[in-house]
Amino acid sequence: MLPERFSTKDFDVAQIRSSCSSCSLRELCLPVGLNDEEVESLGEVVAHKRKILRGGYLHRTGTKFQALYAVKSGFLKTCVLEEDGRQQVTGFHMTGELLGLDAISADMHTCDAIALEDSEVCEIPFSKLEDISRTIPSLMHRFHKIMSREIVRDHGVMLLLGSMKAEERLASFLLNMSRRFAIRGYSETDFNLRMTREEIGSYLGLKLETVSRAFSKLQEEAIISVNNKHIQILDLERLKLKMGNISCST
Amino acid sequence: MLPERFSTKDFDVAQIRSSCSSCSLRELCLPVGLNDEEVESLGEVVAHKRKILRGGYLHRTGTKFQALYAVKSGFLKTCVLEEDGRQQVTGFHMTGELLGLDAISADMHTCDAIALEDSEVCEIPFSKLEDISRTIPSLMHRFHKIMSREIVRDHGVMLLLGSMKAEERLASFLLNMSRRFAIRGYSETDFNLRMTREEIGSYLGLKLETVSRAFSKLQEEAIISVNNKHIQILDLERLKLKMGNISCST
DNA sequence: CTTTTATTTTGATTAAAGTCAATAAAAATA
DNA sequence: TATTTTTATTGACTTTAATCAAAATAAAAG
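Output (structure tokens, whole complex):
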């Protein structure tokens, strides 16, 4: 199901040192340049690995917060669900990304995290992470940057939801997916989406029919090619023009 | 311009100990229960105070990140501005709240912060905060909770922008304002908004005319009374019903 | 205090997206 | 493989909010 040009090269350094911190801690560790001793401390932090089958929950709203989760493989969505049935997908999460940051606030998860394909995560007990980050300032700083980046990302989504039209939103979404696949060594112009039109719609603040129509429109214009969940971007530049100069970092 | 029933009682403890950490550090310090020595360390952190006149910038997009800002008094908005002129108000900020969290990510401010009335902030140099939080774990944890809460708040705004109608959005906004005024000792049913209809609209993903119509609608229904920026909530319960069971914590 | 500028309200019209409905296609299950 | 269920597309129509425009009100500046 995954594209084929995936490379684990980036993770080799960590892989040699610690069994579980392999790709899961890429996000948190690699950019800070830890020494062997420091990485060893971290090895203790991420002792536990978890597999979640497609459709399964990594965590549910209201349950006690124990650990952050680093996505080792797979694809997940997070969504907030209100009593009245209103639902909003707040994010899609792929390899190397960190989940559970919202739960620190009230020691309780504020959203559901559901696997959109069989996935693996590493548990990072949060109290341990805080302990260790006291002795490794660069790790603490790195963690702060990750939290901050989530805030910046959310502000980008707010801009999208607050000021963009359906087609612009979809273009923005596709470019974001494209970039994130590219970072992980997959094709930036040819990929399979893991989520349904309804889930895309929820994330983009649109109904599934509107999402479907926007896909069809972009295909008519020969900007993308759509076969169900398989997307090919035929003209990256024109797709970027569609969203009108907005950066695709959301 | 501010409502009159304001009390500084909550801040007295800190005020005795350190001149500037008075109300500015309420958010960050008070709930962690620091001892005198710890508060003294913090006094060094928040040495610098700044006044911003109405319409003035606290910080601008793209400028180097140096410090977080704790609002000591006044009222500010933050907004992201795109090259094509698209603008989105990402938040309104009142006494005791912390600004600049988005800037940690790339060592650069990602939004403008503009005073909507004459305001005072305390600068909290971020590197110092990180240093000190190493020796005061409870402060570090408190800071993590604040960042996490910002993420939760943003998810709430995403839900609002993604799934609520104009009138529901405005009801949600008013209830949020009401709650935040109440926390600070002001009336929860009678207050002056500091922002224009256009700024409310930008925050809620609506045009100013739509915001105005929604105000008029709620007034017609005798749920609120509107006199320009002066709002009276006549029926808090019905206002809550308007937004359909969604919590007003955003 | 008067003039100018900015803000707010309201109406008429247009554009965009939602809703309802039918069909088709894909995926999951028996 | 056949059947059921889920997901996606498309059309017709409705609702919602945006746009355009004018007037009224409030705030700021001279």
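The first strand of chain A starts at residue 49 and ends at 52.
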